[in-house]
Design goal:
The protein has six helices and four strands. By secondary structure, the chain is α+β, with helices and mostly antiparallel strands. It starts with a helix and ends with a strand. It is found in: Cell inner membrane; Cell membrane.
């Protein structure tokens, strides 16, 4: 009886079974060769469209936001004064290091004053400003100056020190013109 079953099993696995399996694999290959490139093409096109690269090629433009008609125009309290900028002398300081190797900071900054009339007071206090900056900068380590957060902290500290030196004049901002850590 087992011999009969084995013969029946062998008969079913003959030429018939082999043709069905090769037919199934060939159909699957055709589907993959057609569908896969089509999906890649559609996906790539969607990526280009959503990234905005297609706008420049098609001549598209960004719409400007339309202001609400019910909103009143912004109030104009006084005429806007032009800000005055004043360059400080270049500073070169050695930074704190733990090893024998020395590190230096070369810094050029400009001060943004609220008005041109404040410039004589700032020029008069320039030795004090440079002194405050030098004392602070010599205490810095290389790690203190790394990254955007280090730059922002340095800007805030220098702004605090310059405003303390030139009171009652107010300095709006400290602008970095050159900063080199070596």
């Amino acid at each position: 009886m087992t011999e009969d079953l084995e013969e029946d099993f062998d008969d079913n696995d003959g030429a018939d079974g082999g043709a069905d399996s090769s037919q199934g694999k060939g159909g699957m290959k055709k589907i993959l060769l057609i569908v896969l490139p089509l999906l890649l093409l559609i996906g790539g096109g969607a990526g280009v469209y959503f990234s905005g690269l297609l706008d420049g090629l098609l001549g598209g433009h960004k719409e400007e936001p339309v202001a609400e008609s019910s909103a009143p125009p912004p109030p104009v309290a006084k005429a806007v004064q032009a800000a005055a900028f004043m360059d400080l002398p270049e500073m070169l300081v050695n930074l704190q290091t733990s090893g024998r190797k020395q590190a230096f900071l070369k810094l050029r900054v400009a001060l943004e004053l609220e008005s041109v009339a404040d410039q004589p007071r700032v020029e008069q206090m320039m030795p004090r400003i440079v002194d405050y900056f030098q004392v602070y900068l010599r205490e810095l380590r290389i790690e203190d100056l790394q990254g955007a957060s280090g730059m922002n902290l340095l800007r805030e500290e220098l702004l605090t020190r310059v405003n303390a030196a030139v009171k009652p004049v107010k300095v709006s901002d400290v602008l970095f013109k050159e900063m080199l850590v070596q």
